[in-house]
Design a protein that fits this description.
The protein has 239 residues and is α/β, with parallel strands linked by helices. 31% of the residues lie in helices and 20% in strands. It has seven helices and ten strands.
Length: 239
């Protein structure tokens, strides 16, 4: 994980503020369109709310994607697009032409994945070189909708199934290849509940999707974490 930097911040709010600063700096310095894939879940909510406090930033350059989406009806509370629209898109008044959301919710999820892949490649190139990808980490080591024990999908965007106990079993996700080829990746991890998994991933004991993506990265990759999530770092004892 030579390109992976562990960046430890005091609190979840500090993680959001530091991440927002990095994204805004990149947005300001972008010469042309600035493409970013947003993470779902709960951790990045604070970050999106923080970004929404900066309406004067050159948001017209931004091209927003979702790293993954649950196959639920538009507006469903468990859709990542619902959270992103509420915390970021609507407060900033972003134009729909710069926000690329999967049409998940359709019956034919493979067609929706192909359509989203075409949009991704049209904006980020082929292979897709997103300017920034934001990721979270599930307690099981999943990221986006790439889950341990599930076969790793090929291509750049795929229709996948998630474990039954998750918010939605059918999903669309950027694949590991898309996440590995991005220019910069920021993985946001907060809370004591993630501490053991974070230690296992960062210290090379985990072989799940996030660990594999981190291993494959060769350009800037930051694990931006709060103190609570670092509680198990350096505590592993070999059997
Ligand atoms: C999803 C997310 C997912 C998320 C992790 C962490 O759609 O479920 O994209 O990959 O990042 O599950 O979620 P929390 O931030 O809520 O812990």
């Amino acid at each position: 994980m030579s390109s992976v930097t562990l960046q430890i911040e005091a609190s979840p709010q500090a993680v959001a503020q530091v991440s927002a600063k990095l994204i805004l700096e990149a947005l300001h310095s972008a010469d042309g369109p600035f493409s970013i894939a947003l993470a779902g879940g709960s951790t990045p909510r604070r970050l999106y709310e923080e970004l929404a406090t900066q309406p004067e930033a050159p948001w017209a350059k931004a091209r927003l994607f979702l790293g993954d989406e649950r196959a639920l009806p538009l507006g469903h509370a468990d859709r990542n697009s619902t959270m992103v629209e509420r915390t970021l898109v609507r407060p900033l008044g972003l134009d729909t032409s710069q926000v690329f959301l999967p049409t998940a919710g359709q019956e034919d999820l493979h067609a929706a994945a192909e359509d989203y892949e075409a949009q991704l490649l049209a904006v980020a190139g082929h292979p897709p070189r997103l300017d920034i990808v934001l990721l979270g980490m599930g307690g099981d080591g999943h990221t986006a909708s790439l889950f341990p024990g599930h076969s790793a999908p090929s291509g750049w965007v795929a229709a996948v199934s998630a474990p039954e106990e998750t918010a939605a079993a059918r999903r669309i996700t950027l694949t590991a290849a898309s996440l590995i080829s991005a220019k910069r990746v920021f993985v946001l991890v907060t809370g004591a509940s993630k501490a053991q998994r974070l230690a296992d991933v960062f210290e090379g004991r985990d072989e799940g999707p996030l660990a594999q993506i981190l291993e494959g990265r060769s350009t800037e990759t930051r694990l931006i974490v709060d103190m609570a999530a670092t509680a198990r770092l350096g505590t592993h004892k070999e059997d």
